[in-house]
Amino acid sequence: MNRFSSLEFDDTDRSSKRENRSGEPIRDAAYFYRQAELSWLNGDWELALRNYSRALEQNRAMFEAWSGQVMMLIELGEYPEAQVWADKALEMFPEHPELLAEKAIACARDEKPEKAMAYSDNAVSKEKLTWRVWLGRAEVLMRRRSRLAEDCVSKARALASGSTNLVNLEAGRVLSGGGRYSAAIEYLDRAVRDFPKSALAWYELGRCQSQLGFSEARASLEQALYLRPDWDCALREMKKAGGRGRRLWRRVFGG
Amino acid sequence: MPGQTTCFQCGCVLCAESTTAPVRPPRMAAWKRPWRRLKRAAIRAARIIPHPKVSQRTAEWLDRVLNRALSGILLSIVPGVAHALQRRLRSVRLYLALWVLFLFGALFFYGGSLGMAFLGLAVTWHAWIALKAGMWQQVHELRYRLLAMGFVAAGLGFLYWGIGRLVLSDITGGYVTQAVEFHRVSAGDFVLARRSMADVEHLTRGSLVLAPMGTIQARRPRRGPYEVIAQIVALPGETLTVEKAATGETRFVISGQPLETDVYPVPRWLTRPDLSVKIPEGCCFLSTAYRTTGRYSTDTILALCVVPLEDIEAKVFMRWLPIGRRGFIREVE
Predict the structure, then answer these.
(1) Contact B25/A53, CB-based, under 8 Å?
(2) Does B23 contact A53 at a Cβ distance shorter than 8 Å?
(3) Which residues, 6 or more positions from B278, have their beta carbon under 8 angstroms from its beta carbon?
(4) H or E element: which one contains A168?
(5) Using CA atoms, how far apart are residues A216 and A237, in angstroms rounded to an integer?
(6) Smallest CA–CA distance from B47 into chain A, residue
């Protein structure tokens, strides 16, 4: 199964949804996985993690759910736990490059750059690399302030061409995490066109625009809040984006 | 169907697996989040990347010194943190115990020369721990080590002074110049005073206070920044006189009412039988001993001893040194 084959971001695409006789969707692994991905696109890491776990309860051999769990732990800032869980997943999927890349991201965010680099090196030395592996390497390199980071992002995009558009959103997030907001905006602009109902995509775009002092930041963040009302991060960013003086300062001095 | 776990026809589970593998990940306790954030921030602060323009050799040296030595010193502002991050806290546990001991000694003997000695030891010991976190591995020559020690100890000295001022901003102290039998204080004792108690509510007759009374230079009163421990004898509106009792002792008399000499001793320089002072509103009469001889005019005494209530810095609440008499000061009225 392709990792994103079960996703439905458009209301018109209902053909793949499995329903029982009474019209309710069948709550199988694919259903929970779909819910998890939607929660992720909504920026709700906790709910996404729960849904990935439910998907695993239905099907323990579902690699995407294991990988999703590790990613959600990373998003929640629980890096040591993410490493433990990646090890657990590696017992089932030994030497899987995506899990190694996720371990690298967890180490990098946990301020362990040497370990992160080692895991990333190990991940890219494997066969059948995915775009997530290259984005993981980009993040590791970006934290080391290496100029090769953007090349890795380009490589990830080249690998993902035609399969899914999520790479734009992820690439934008990696670049904005490394402080390269103007480069990130390019990717995030495409991401919001591909996923207009994703609060996460709008929030990330708004954050980058706010960091660069663009007045469009408010509109993007308002859109994120419209899709996910009372989202703390978006509300905080909205407050930051507020003042004209601050916007001017950021426009001149960049963040 | 013996030996089968599922029905071959309908796929029903016939006997469940004895162990179920976990599919829910371990989670972080909420209280750990800020600590982990702090730890990551500390690691980030400690990591300094060398400037790309300097030569490779200089960059390596700078990297070594800044990354290990300087970060070790900065992280050791709280002694042991750098070692804890380097996972070798055990190597300095004895140093830390001694530092705590010195610090405790400095606090216990605060105000005396022993307290100062302990404080000096605590500062230098702290500097030693900070330098042991990284600098000693990089610098081997004695003169450079001494120089580093001097700088770090001086910096920590300033830090201790600042923290002391901040934490103990309400507490001050001073040496008693006039013995007061009732309060069990003698000349030379060190007492502690609280600034927050220097208000009209807490200031009563007999209270020991820290006040700017000035000095006597060339038989003339000089107002200055010098603060002395003195006793409040007369309050606003009262008339103070000094008289000789039948027993031969000199005592204060307030509006015709004589005061007990063990509670209100009269300093030698104020033993004037004709002294009569009317205390103005908002002021009080403070009595303290000066190292002086001879008699002074009423104007001089007024200039020194009549002090506005608002000028009083703090009220004494504790006898601190000598340790044998350590205890709280009793209220007279």
Answers:
(1) yes
(2) yes
(3) B238, B239
(4) helix A166-177
(5) 13
(6) A111
Judged by CB atoms closer than 8 Å, whether chains meet at B36 and A77 is answered as yes
Q: What is the pLDDT of residues A161-202, one digit of tens each?
A: 765 678 999 999 999 998 888 889 999 999 999 999 999 999
Q: Return phi, psi of residue A76, to 5°.
A: -80, 0
C-alpha span between A164 and A5 (Å, rounded): 9
For the CA atoms of chain A, what is the radius of gyration?
Answer: 18
pLDDT tens for each residue of B192-225: 998 888 887 788 888 899 888 766 666 666 666 6
Query: Over the stretch A201-230, which tens digit does the pLDDT of each residue have?
Result: 999 999 999 888 888 888 999 999 999 998
Which is it for the CA torsion B113, B118, B121, B123, positive or negative?
Answer: negative
B135-160 tens-digit pLDDT = 777 777 888 888 889 999 999 999 99
Q: In B, which residues are within 8 Å of A85 by CB distance?
A: 25-26
**B189 class by beta-carbon count within 10 Å (0-12 exposed, 13-18 middle, 19+ buried):** buried
A60/B21 touch (CB, cutoff 8 Å), yes or no: yes
Which residues of A sit within 8 Å Cβ distance of B?
A: 49, 53, 56-57, 60, 69-70, 73, 76-82, 84-85, 88, 110-111, 145
Most B-contacting residue of A75, A78, A90, A147 (CB-CB within 10 A), to test interface: A78
Q: How far is CA B204 from the centre of its chain?
A: 27
